[in-house]
Amino acid sequence: MGHRRFLPQAHHFRKQKKAFNGEAEHVRAPKPLSGAEVLDSLSSVEAVFGKERRPSNTEGVWKKRSIFFDLPYWKDLLVRHNLDVMHIEKNVCESLIGTLLNIPGKTKDGENARLDMAAMGIRESLNKIIDPSKLQQLQYEVVVTLCLLEKYFPPAFFDVMVHLTVHLPREIKFCGPRVESRSRFKVIPIDYKTLCEAHYYVLQNTTVVDPYMCEHLSFVRTLHPMKAKNEKWLQAEHKRSFSSWFKRKIETELAHPENTISQQIRWLAHEPKREVLSYSGYGIGGYYYNTRDHDSRSTTQNSGVMVEAELLHMSTAKDKNPIYANMLYYGVIEDIWELNYTQFKIPVFRCKWVDSKGGVKVDENGFTLVDLNKEGDPNDQFIFASQAKQVFYVNDPNGGRWSVVLTTKPKLYDRGDVCDNIEETPSFSRGLPESDDIDNEDVAYMREDCEGIYVEEDTTSRKKRKMT
Fold first, then answer.
1. Residues 454-466: pLDDT tens digits?
2. How far is it, in rounded angstroms, from Cα 305 to Cα 333?
3. Among 233, 130, 225, which residue's Cα sits nearest to residue 453?
Protein backbone atom coordinates (compact mmCIF):
# COMPACT_ATOMS: atom_id res chain seq x y z
CA MET A 1 0.00 0.00 0.00
CA GLY A 2 3.03 2.26 0.34
CA HIS A 3 2.21 3.66 3.80
CA ARG A 4 5.63 2.73 5.19
CA ARG A 5 7.19 5.38 2.94
CA PHE A 6 5.90 8.03 5.35
CA LEU A 7 7.71 6.48 8.35
CA PRO A 8 11.15 7.62 9.54
CA GLN A 9 13.97 5.87 7.68
CA ALA A 10 15.06 3.95 10.80
CA HIS A 11 11.60 2.67 11.72
CA HIS A 12 11.53 -1.13 12.21
CA PHE A 13 8.36 -1.50 10.10
CA ARG A 14 10.40 -0.61 7.01
CA LYS A 15 12.47 -3.80 7.37
CA GLN A 16 9.55 -6.18 7.95
CA LYS A 17 8.47 -8.21 4.93
CA LYS A 18 6.05 -10.99 5.82
CA ALA A 19 3.59 -8.73 7.61
CA PHE A 20 3.34 -6.39 4.61
CA ASN A 21 3.93 -6.98 0.89
CA GLY A 22 6.89 -9.36 1.13
CA GLU A 23 9.47 -6.64 0.53
CA ALA A 24 11.40 -4.16 2.65
CA GLU A 25 10.57 -0.49 2.11
CA HIS A 26 13.49 1.84 1.29
CA VAL A 27 11.65 4.58 -0.63
CA ARG A 28 11.23 7.98 1.01
CA ALA A 29 7.86 9.73 1.27
CA PRO A 30 7.01 11.80 -1.82
CA LYS A 31 7.02 15.58 -1.46
CA PRO A 32 3.65 17.33 -1.91
CA LEU A 33 3.36 19.04 -5.29
CA SER A 34 3.27 22.80 -5.32
CA GLY A 35 0.49 24.65 -7.09
CA ALA A 36 2.85 25.61 -9.90
CA GLU A 37 3.90 21.95 -10.41
CA VAL A 38 0.26 20.82 -10.52
CA LEU A 39 -0.60 23.55 -13.01
CA ASP A 40 2.33 22.54 -15.20
CA SER A 41 1.23 18.87 -15.24
CA LEU A 42 -2.30 19.97 -16.20
CA SER A 43 -1.13 21.87 -19.27
CA SER A 44 -1.64 18.86 -21.58
CA VAL A 45 -4.94 17.65 -20.05
CA GLU A 46 -8.04 18.17 -22.17
CA ALA A 47 -11.23 18.30 -20.15
CA VAL A 48 -14.21 16.25 -21.37
CA PHE A 49 -17.48 17.53 -19.93
CA GLY A 50 -20.83 15.78 -19.81
CA LYS A 51 -21.51 12.03 -19.95
CA GLU A 52 -19.29 11.25 -22.93
CA ARG A 53 -16.94 8.30 -22.51
CA ARG A 54 -13.49 9.46 -21.46
CA PRO A 55 -10.43 7.89 -23.08
CA SER A 56 -9.08 5.03 -20.92
CA ASN A 57 -5.44 5.58 -21.87
CA THR A 58 -5.13 9.06 -20.32
CA GLU A 59 -1.66 9.45 -18.81
CA GLY A 60 -1.24 10.64 -15.24
CA VAL A 61 -3.81 10.98 -12.45
CA TRP A 62 -5.53 14.15 -13.68
CA LYS A 63 -8.82 14.10 -15.59
CA LYS A 64 -9.44 17.81 -15.97
CA ARG A 65 -8.05 21.23 -15.01
CA SER A 66 -9.82 23.01 -12.15
CA ILE A 67 -11.37 26.32 -13.11
CA PHE A 68 -9.92 27.83 -9.92
CA PHE A 69 -6.50 27.88 -11.60
CA ASP A 70 -7.83 30.86 -13.59
CA LEU A 71 -7.46 32.84 -10.38
CA PRO A 72 -4.02 34.47 -10.39
CA TYR A 73 -3.22 33.52 -6.77
CA TRP A 74 -4.55 29.92 -6.84
CA LYS A 75 -1.28 28.24 -7.80
CA ASP A 76 0.50 29.98 -4.91
CA LEU A 77 -1.79 28.63 -2.18
CA LEU A 78 -0.26 25.98 0.11
CA VAL A 79 -3.69 24.32 0.62
CA ARG A 80 -5.95 24.66 -2.41
CA HIS A 81 -8.71 22.29 -1.24
CA ASN A 82 -9.77 21.38 2.30
CA LEU A 83 -10.32 17.68 2.95
CA ASP A 84 -13.81 16.80 4.17
CA VAL A 85 -13.00 15.40 7.63
CA MET A 86 -16.51 14.14 8.37
CA HIS A 87 -16.74 12.37 4.99
CA ILE A 88 -13.36 10.67 5.49
CA GLU A 89 -14.29 9.76 9.06
CA LYS A 90 -17.55 8.16 7.90
CA ASN A 91 -15.92 6.08 5.14
CA VAL A 92 -13.06 4.86 7.32
CA CYS A 93 -15.51 3.87 10.04
CA GLU A 94 -17.70 1.98 7.56
CA SER A 95 -14.67 0.11 6.20
CA LEU A 96 -13.47 -0.86 9.69
CA ILE A 97 -16.85 -1.95 11.04
CA GLY A 98 -17.84 -3.65 7.79
CA THR A 99 -14.60 -5.64 7.66
CA LEU A 100 -14.50 -6.56 11.37
CA LEU A 101 -18.14 -7.69 11.36
CA ASN A 102 -17.93 -9.14 7.82
CA ILE A 103 -20.98 -7.15 6.68
CA PRO A 104 -22.01 -8.16 3.12
CA GLY A 105 -21.36 -5.34 0.68
CA LYS A 106 -19.27 -3.43 3.22
CA THR A 107 -16.39 -5.78 4.11
CA LYS A 108 -13.09 -5.31 2.34
CA ASP A 109 -11.96 -8.83 3.23
CA GLY A 110 -13.82 -11.15 0.86
CA GLU A 111 -12.98 -13.96 -1.53
CA ASN A 112 -11.63 -11.60 -4.19
CA ALA A 113 -9.30 -9.95 -1.66
CA ARG A 114 -7.94 -13.34 -0.61
CA LEU A 115 -7.49 -14.43 -4.22
CA ASP A 116 -5.65 -11.17 -4.93
CA MET A 117 -3.27 -11.84 -2.04
CA ALA A 118 -2.70 -15.38 -3.28
CA ALA A 119 -1.91 -14.05 -6.77
CA MET A 120 0.48 -11.48 -5.27
CA GLY A 121 2.19 -14.16 -3.18
CA ILE A 122 1.69 -12.33 0.14
CA ARG A 123 0.07 -13.15 3.49
CA GLU A 124 -0.10 -16.86 2.63
CA SER A 125 -1.37 -17.73 6.11
CA LEU A 126 -4.63 -15.94 5.27
CA ASN A 127 -5.31 -18.21 2.28
CA LYS A 128 -6.68 -21.34 3.92
CA ILE A 129 -8.11 -24.54 2.53
CA ILE A 130 -11.04 -26.16 4.26
CA ASP A 131 -10.35 -29.53 5.88
CA PRO A 132 -13.64 -31.42 6.41
CA SER A 133 -11.85 -33.83 8.77
CA LYS A 134 -11.53 -30.97 11.29
CA LEU A 135 -15.20 -30.01 11.27
CA GLN A 136 -15.98 -32.19 14.29
CA GLN A 137 -13.26 -30.48 16.32
CA LEU A 138 -14.56 -27.12 15.11
CA GLN A 139 -18.05 -27.93 16.35
CA TYR A 140 -16.62 -28.91 19.75
CA GLU A 141 -14.78 -25.58 19.98
CA VAL A 142 -17.94 -23.66 19.09
CA VAL A 143 -19.87 -25.36 21.88
CA VAL A 144 -17.09 -24.72 24.42
CA THR A 145 -16.99 -21.06 23.37
CA LEU A 146 -20.74 -20.71 23.86
CA CYS A 147 -20.47 -22.31 27.31
CA LEU A 148 -17.77 -19.83 28.29
CA LEU A 149 -19.95 -16.97 27.07
CA GLU A 150 -22.87 -18.38 29.07
CA LYS A 151 -20.83 -17.98 32.27
CA TYR A 152 -20.55 -14.22 31.77
CA PHE A 153 -23.37 -13.02 29.49
CA PRO A 154 -27.05 -12.73 30.48
CA PRO A 155 -29.60 -15.16 28.98
CA ALA A 156 -30.97 -12.41 26.72
CA PHE A 157 -27.71 -12.50 24.76
CA PHE A 158 -28.33 -16.05 23.53
CA ASP A 159 -30.93 -15.50 20.87
CA VAL A 160 -31.57 -17.91 18.01
CA MET A 161 -28.80 -16.45 15.83
CA VAL A 162 -26.17 -17.16 18.50
CA HIS A 163 -27.49 -20.67 18.95
CA LEU A 164 -27.33 -21.41 15.21
CA THR A 165 -23.51 -21.30 15.33
CA VAL A 166 -23.68 -24.77 16.91
CA HIS A 167 -25.10 -26.17 13.66
CA LEU A 168 -22.75 -24.42 11.22
CA PRO A 169 -20.06 -27.18 11.12
CA ARG A 170 -22.71 -29.80 10.34
CA GLU A 171 -24.10 -27.69 7.50
CA ILE A 172 -20.60 -27.12 6.08
CA LYS A 173 -20.06 -30.89 6.10
CA PHE A 174 -23.12 -31.56 3.96
CA CYS A 175 -23.40 -28.37 1.91
CA GLY A 176 -19.80 -27.24 1.65
CA PRO A 177 -18.18 -23.82 2.05
CA ARG A 178 -18.85 -20.97 -0.32
CA VAL A 179 -15.66 -20.83 -2.39
CA GLU A 180 -14.98 -19.87 -6.01
CA SER A 181 -13.49 -23.15 -7.12
CA ARG A 182 -16.05 -25.66 -5.82
CA SER A 183 -19.78 -25.98 -5.62
CA ARG A 184 -21.55 -27.57 -2.69
CA PHE A 185 -20.47 -31.09 -1.88
CA LYS A 186 -21.94 -34.09 -0.17
CA VAL A 187 -20.29 -37.10 1.44
CA ILE A 188 -21.15 -40.37 -0.30
CA PRO A 189 -19.87 -43.96 -0.07
CA ILE A 190 -18.61 -45.66 -3.25
CA ASP A 191 -18.34 -49.35 -4.02
CA TYR A 192 -15.04 -51.10 -3.38
CA LYS A 193 -14.34 -51.97 -7.02
CA THR A 194 -14.68 -48.35 -8.12
CA LEU A 195 -12.56 -47.23 -5.17
CA CYS A 196 -9.78 -49.64 -6.16
CA GLU A 197 -9.88 -48.39 -9.76
CA ALA A 198 -9.59 -44.76 -8.64
CA HIS A 199 -6.83 -45.66 -6.18
CA TYR A 200 -4.81 -47.48 -8.85
CA TYR A 201 -5.12 -44.49 -11.16
CA VAL A 202 -3.71 -42.21 -8.45
CA LEU A 203 -0.78 -44.57 -7.86
CA GLN A 204 -0.15 -44.98 -11.58
CA ASN A 205 0.06 -41.21 -12.13
CA THR A 206 2.05 -40.19 -9.04
CA THR A 207 5.75 -39.63 -9.73
CA VAL A 208 7.03 -40.85 -6.35
CA VAL A 209 5.38 -44.23 -6.95
CA ASP A 210 7.09 -44.80 -10.34
CA PRO A 211 10.07 -46.74 -8.89
CA TYR A 212 7.66 -49.15 -7.19
CA MET A 213 5.72 -49.52 -10.45
CA CYS A 214 8.89 -50.59 -12.28
CA GLU A 215 9.86 -52.95 -9.45
CA HIS A 216 6.45 -54.63 -9.49
CA LEU A 217 6.52 -55.10 -13.26
CA SER A 218 9.88 -56.89 -12.91
CA PHE A 219 8.41 -58.95 -10.09
CA VAL A 220 5.45 -60.04 -12.25
CA ARG A 221 7.76 -60.95 -15.15
CA THR A 222 9.89 -63.08 -12.82
CA LEU A 223 6.85 -64.71 -11.22
CA HIS A 224 5.29 -65.59 -14.60
CA PRO A 225 8.19 -66.20 -17.04
CA MET A 226 5.96 -68.04 -19.55
CA LYS A 227 3.73 -64.97 -19.97
CA ALA A 228 6.36 -62.27 -19.60
CA LYS A 229 6.44 -61.57 -23.35
CA ASN A 230 2.68 -60.99 -23.54
CA GLU A 231 2.60 -57.25 -22.86
CA LYS A 232 -1.19 -57.05 -22.76
CA TRP A 233 -1.47 -59.79 -20.12
CA LEU A 234 1.46 -58.33 -18.20
CA GLN A 235 -0.19 -54.91 -17.92
CA ALA A 236 -3.51 -56.44 -16.86
CA GLU A 237 -1.86 -58.50 -14.12
CA HIS A 238 0.18 -55.50 -13.02
CA LYS A 239 -3.00 -53.43 -12.66
CA ARG A 240 -4.80 -56.20 -10.77
CA SER A 241 -2.11 -56.91 -8.18
CA PHE A 242 -0.06 -53.73 -7.77
CA SER A 243 -2.09 -51.99 -5.04
CA SER A 244 -1.98 -54.91 -2.60
CA TRP A 245 1.71 -55.60 -3.40
CA PHE A 246 2.56 -51.91 -2.88
CA LYS A 247 0.81 -51.87 0.51
CA ARG A 248 2.72 -54.95 1.73
CA LYS A 249 5.99 -53.54 0.38
CA ILE A 250 5.64 -50.25 2.29
CA GLU A 251 4.54 -52.02 5.50
CA THR A 252 7.67 -54.17 5.31
CA GLU A 253 9.91 -51.15 4.80
CA LEU A 254 8.26 -49.26 7.65
CA ALA A 255 9.11 -52.09 10.00
CA HIS A 256 12.78 -51.06 9.76
CA PRO A 257 13.59 -48.24 12.22
CA GLU A 258 15.91 -46.49 9.74
CA ASN A 259 13.45 -46.39 6.83
CA THR A 260 13.21 -43.28 4.62
CA ILE A 261 9.57 -43.64 3.59
CA SER A 262 7.93 -40.23 3.10
CA GLN A 263 4.54 -39.34 4.53
CA GLN A 264 3.10 -39.16 1.01
CA ILE A 265 4.20 -42.74 0.21
CA ARG A 266 3.03 -43.93 3.62
CA TRP A 267 -0.54 -42.70 3.08
CA LEU A 268 -0.70 -43.59 -0.61
CA ALA A 269 0.10 -47.19 0.28
CA HIS A 270 -3.22 -47.39 2.11
CA GLU A 271 -6.45 -47.22 0.20
CA PRO A 272 -8.45 -43.97 0.45
CA LYS A 273 -11.49 -43.87 2.65
CA ARG A 274 -14.67 -45.40 1.25
CA GLU A 275 -16.53 -42.10 1.70
CA VAL A 276 -15.65 -39.37 -0.81
CA LEU A 277 -16.60 -35.72 -1.18
CA SER A 278 -18.83 -35.50 -4.24
CA TYR A 279 -19.23 -32.17 -6.09
CA SER A 280 -21.57 -31.05 -8.85
CA GLY A 281 -19.06 -28.39 -9.94
CA TYR A 282 -15.33 -27.78 -9.63
CA GLY A 283 -13.03 -24.99 -10.80
CA ILE A 284 -9.37 -25.59 -11.59
CA GLY A 285 -6.78 -24.33 -14.05
CA GLY A 286 -8.97 -21.50 -15.33
CA TYR A 287 -11.84 -23.87 -16.23
CA TYR A 288 -15.08 -24.51 -14.37
CA TYR A 289 -16.52 -28.02 -14.76
CA ASN A 290 -19.92 -29.51 -13.97
CA THR A 291 -21.16 -33.08 -13.99
CA ARG A 292 -23.40 -34.37 -16.79
CA ASP A 293 -26.32 -34.50 -14.35
CA HIS A 294 -25.83 -30.84 -13.44
CA ASP A 295 -25.66 -29.86 -17.11
CA SER A 296 -28.93 -31.65 -17.79
CA ARG A 297 -30.63 -29.18 -15.44
CA SER A 298 -28.81 -26.13 -16.73
CA THR A 299 -28.83 -23.96 -19.85
CA THR A 300 -25.03 -24.09 -20.08
CA GLN A 301 -22.62 -26.95 -20.83
CA ASN A 302 -19.52 -27.50 -18.71
CA SER A 303 -19.20 -31.29 -18.53
CA GLY A 304 -17.19 -31.93 -21.71
CA VAL A 305 -13.51 -32.82 -21.24
CA MET A 306 -10.50 -33.73 -23.31
CA VAL A 307 -7.31 -35.36 -22.02
CA GLU A 308 -4.01 -36.37 -23.52
CA ALA A 309 -3.30 -39.98 -22.62
CA GLU A 310 -0.63 -42.60 -23.14
CA LEU A 311 -2.28 -45.52 -24.92
CA LEU A 312 -1.16 -49.10 -25.43
CA HIS A 313 -1.49 -49.62 -29.21
CA MET A 314 -1.89 -53.07 -30.79
CA SER A 315 -1.79 -53.83 -34.52
CA THR A 316 -4.19 -56.80 -34.16
CA ALA A 317 -6.15 -58.52 -31.41
CA LYS A 318 -3.37 -61.14 -31.18
CA ASP A 319 -0.55 -58.60 -31.01
CA LYS A 320 1.60 -59.56 -28.00
CA ASN A 321 4.04 -56.66 -28.33
CA PRO A 322 2.01 -53.44 -28.38
CA ILE A 323 3.63 -50.03 -28.10
CA TYR A 324 2.77 -46.89 -26.16
CA ALA A 325 1.79 -43.66 -27.93
CA ASN A 326 0.06 -40.41 -26.95
CA MET A 327 -3.52 -39.81 -28.02
CA LEU A 328 -6.37 -37.40 -27.25
CA TYR A 329 -9.54 -38.69 -25.61
CA TYR A 330 -12.94 -36.98 -25.44
CA GLY A 331 -15.59 -37.60 -22.81
CA VAL A 332 -18.18 -36.30 -20.36
CA ILE A 333 -17.81 -35.93 -16.58
CA GLU A 334 -20.10 -38.25 -14.66
CA ASP A 335 -18.81 -37.56 -11.12
CA ILE A 336 -16.40 -35.18 -9.41
CA TRP A 337 -14.83 -36.70 -6.30
CA GLU A 338 -12.16 -35.87 -3.76
CA LEU A 339 -10.39 -39.04 -2.60
CA ASN A 340 -9.51 -38.83 1.10
CA TYR A 341 -6.05 -40.17 1.99
CA THR A 342 -6.38 -38.86 5.58
CA GLN A 343 -3.46 -36.43 5.34
CA PHE A 344 -4.36 -35.07 1.92
CA LYS A 345 -7.11 -35.20 -0.68
CA ILE A 346 -6.91 -35.71 -4.44
CA PRO A 347 -9.65 -34.39 -6.80
CA VAL A 348 -10.53 -36.75 -9.66
CA PHE A 349 -13.10 -36.80 -12.45
CA ARG A 350 -14.97 -40.02 -13.26
CA CYS A 351 -15.73 -39.78 -16.96
CA LYS A 352 -17.52 -41.63 -19.71
CA TRP A 353 -15.04 -41.69 -22.60
CA VAL A 354 -15.88 -41.88 -26.28
CA ASP A 355 -14.51 -44.96 -28.05
CA SER A 356 -11.50 -43.67 -29.99
CA LYS A 357 -11.70 -46.47 -32.58
CA GLY A 358 -15.17 -45.76 -33.97
CA GLY A 359 -16.40 -42.73 -32.07
CA VAL A 360 -13.96 -40.03 -33.20
CA LYS A 361 -13.37 -38.72 -36.73
CA VAL A 362 -12.35 -35.59 -38.64
CA ASP A 363 -14.59 -34.35 -41.47
CA GLU A 364 -13.52 -32.82 -44.76
CA ASN A 365 -13.56 -29.31 -43.24
CA GLY A 366 -11.15 -30.23 -40.46
CA PHE A 367 -13.74 -30.37 -37.66
CA THR A 368 -13.35 -33.05 -34.99
CA LEU A 369 -16.56 -35.06 -34.55
CA VAL A 370 -17.43 -37.50 -31.75
CA ASP A 371 -20.22 -40.00 -31.22
CA LEU A 372 -21.12 -39.63 -27.55
CA ASN A 373 -23.16 -42.83 -27.67
CA LYS A 374 -20.07 -44.96 -28.39
CA GLU A 375 -18.57 -45.66 -24.99
CA GLY A 376 -14.93 -46.62 -24.54
CA ASP A 377 -13.35 -48.85 -21.90
CA PRO A 378 -15.67 -48.76 -18.83
CA ASN A 379 -12.80 -49.93 -16.59
CA ASP A 380 -10.67 -46.86 -17.29
CA GLN A 381 -12.76 -43.92 -16.16
CA PHE A 382 -10.63 -41.62 -14.00
CA ILE A 383 -8.38 -38.62 -14.56
CA PHE A 384 -6.95 -36.02 -12.21
CA ALA A 385 -8.92 -32.78 -12.23
CA SER A 386 -5.69 -30.99 -13.13
CA GLN A 387 -5.28 -33.08 -16.30
CA ALA A 388 -8.59 -32.14 -17.91
CA LYS A 389 -9.09 -29.58 -20.65
CA GLN A 390 -12.58 -28.29 -21.28
CA VAL A 391 -14.39 -28.86 -24.58
CA PHE A 392 -17.95 -28.27 -25.77
CA TYR A 393 -20.08 -30.58 -27.90
CA VAL A 394 -22.44 -29.10 -30.50
CA ASN A 395 -24.84 -31.20 -32.55
CA ASP A 396 -23.64 -31.62 -36.12
CA PRO A 397 -25.73 -29.31 -38.39
CA ASN A 398 -25.86 -32.14 -40.94
CA GLY A 399 -27.78 -34.24 -38.43
CA GLY A 400 -27.04 -37.77 -37.32
CA ARG A 401 -25.39 -39.00 -34.15
CA TRP A 402 -22.21 -36.90 -34.40
CA SER A 403 -21.30 -33.85 -32.31
CA VAL A 404 -18.74 -31.20 -33.22
CA VAL A 405 -15.92 -30.67 -30.69
CA LEU A 406 -15.24 -27.01 -29.82
CA THR A 407 -12.17 -26.20 -27.73
CA THR A 408 -11.47 -23.09 -25.68
CA LYS A 409 -8.67 -21.50 -23.74
CA PRO A 410 -8.79 -21.21 -19.92
CA LYS A 411 -11.05 -18.41 -18.78
CA LEU A 412 -9.88 -15.21 -17.12
CA TYR A 413 -11.23 -14.43 -13.66
CA ASP A 414 -11.49 -10.69 -13.00
CA ARG A 415 -12.59 -9.94 -9.42
CA GLY A 416 -15.07 -12.79 -9.44
CA ASP A 417 -16.44 -12.25 -12.95
CA VAL A 418 -15.66 -14.77 -15.68
CA CYS A 419 -14.45 -13.33 -18.97
CA ASP A 420 -13.63 -15.44 -22.03
CA ASN A 421 -10.18 -14.82 -23.43
CA ILE A 422 -11.53 -14.20 -26.93
CA GLU A 423 -8.24 -13.12 -28.49
CA GLU A 424 -6.57 -16.45 -27.70
CA THR A 425 -9.49 -18.76 -28.44
CA PRO A 426 -8.41 -21.18 -31.20
CA SER A 427 -10.30 -21.79 -34.41
CA PHE A 428 -13.09 -24.35 -34.21
CA SER A 429 -11.89 -26.03 -37.41
CA ARG A 430 -9.03 -28.36 -36.61
CA GLY A 431 -7.86 -31.90 -37.15
CA LEU A 432 -6.97 -34.42 -34.47
CA PRO A 433 -4.54 -32.39 -32.31
CA GLU A 434 -0.93 -33.50 -32.17
CA SER A 435 0.72 -33.76 -28.72
CA ASP A 436 4.32 -32.63 -28.06
CA ASP A 437 6.38 -35.20 -26.50
CA ILE A 438 15.79 -14.02 3.62
CA ASP A 439 13.50 -12.81 6.02
CA ASN A 440 13.80 -13.85 9.72
CA GLU A 441 10.88 -11.71 10.82
CA ASP A 442 8.07 -14.07 11.85
CA VAL A 443 5.63 -11.54 13.29
CA ALA A 444 2.40 -11.42 11.29
CA TYR A 445 -0.26 -8.92 12.31
CA MET A 446 -3.43 -10.88 11.71
CA ARG A 447 -6.32 -12.32 13.67
CA GLU A 448 -6.09 -15.98 14.60
CA ASP A 449 -9.28 -16.24 16.63
CA CYS A 450 -11.71 -16.71 13.73
CA GLU A 451 -12.20 -18.77 10.60
CA GLY A 452 -10.59 -17.60 7.39
CA ILE A 453 -11.65 -17.40 3.75
CA TYR A 454 -11.02 -20.67 1.93
CA VAL A 455 -9.14 -20.62 -1.40
CA GLU A 456 -8.58 -23.77 -3.49
CA GLU A 457 -5.03 -24.63 -4.38
CA ASP A 458 -4.25 -25.84 -7.80
CA THR A 459 -2.53 -29.17 -8.38
CA THR A 460 0.21 -30.18 -10.76
CA SER A 461 -0.98 -31.78 -13.96
CA ARG A 462 0.31 -35.12 -15.04
CA LYS A 463 -0.23 -37.23 -18.13
CA LYS A 464 -2.78 -39.96 -17.89
CA ARG A 465 -1.99 -43.53 -18.84
CA LYS A 466 -4.57 -45.78 -20.38
CA MET A 467 -4.66 -49.34 -21.62
CA THR A 468 -7.05 -51.07 -23.96
1. 555 554 444 445 4
2. 7
3. 130
